[in-house]
Amino acid sequence: MKKKFVAIIGMLLVLGMAMTGCSGPSGSSESGSAEESNRVSSSQTSGQNREESDNIPGSNATELTVQFGDNGEPFVMHLEDNSTAAAIAGYVGTTDWRLPVYSYDESDVMEYYDIPSRYEIPDNSETVTEAHAGEVYYSDPNRIVLYYHDAQINEEYTLIGIFEATDAFVDAVENNPVLEGWGNQIVVIRDGE
């Protein structure tokens, strides 16, 4: 029994020394491989980001259709000619957007809709000091802001579209029903073509 115990201890020591001897040079190379792998992953990720921005669906759409509520009357938003509006139209052209409606401190001049972060939208913002009813802006990152009444502001926005601010339009925005069971209003944005 004593011989078996000594043999097992001896074997463990030999294996331990062999493992220690192997981990030095190979551990460094494994570490180097891990670093190399991280560099490859980083460059692949950078490549993917460039690819994703290259993969923003293009669109020649000049308008989108917007409903305030699932059963609301559709209104036409005339798009601006810029890369921000084109990217939004391109994404909406692949799938309709159904977004929750929010406002700052129960604002009576504007509301906003957060776009999921998986959509990459180019930002071309400028300082805007005056918003007019019916103007729609992009606010980085991934937010659409609709003004349904005129307002004095100081924001960094990209103008992406304009609605005709008729009484029916303003009424649809202001009286958008709260979605039953959800506790929020929604806006549905579709390709206008």
Quaternary state of this entry equals: single chain
Can you summarize the main beta sheet? 9 strands, antiparallel
What is the CA-atom radius of gyration, in angstroms?
Answer: 29 Å
Distance between the termini: 87 Å
DSSP summary: helix tally:
3
Strand content: 25-35%
Total of domains? 2
Task: Classify the fold: give the CATH topology of the largest domain.
Answer: Cyclophilin
Whole-number mean pLDDT: 79
Q: Which consecutive residue ranges, at least 5 long each, have pLDDT under 50?
A: 12-52
The total strand number stands at: 9
CATH class of the largest domain: Mainly Beta
Helix content: 25-40%
Quickly give the CATH architecture of the largest domain: Beta Barrel
Class computed from helices, strands and strand pairing = alpha+beta
Characterize the structure shown.
The chain is 38% helix and 28% strand. By secondary structure, it is α+β, with helices and mostly antiparallel strands. It has two domains: 1-55; 63-191, Cyclophilin (Beta Barrel), CATH 2.40.100.20.
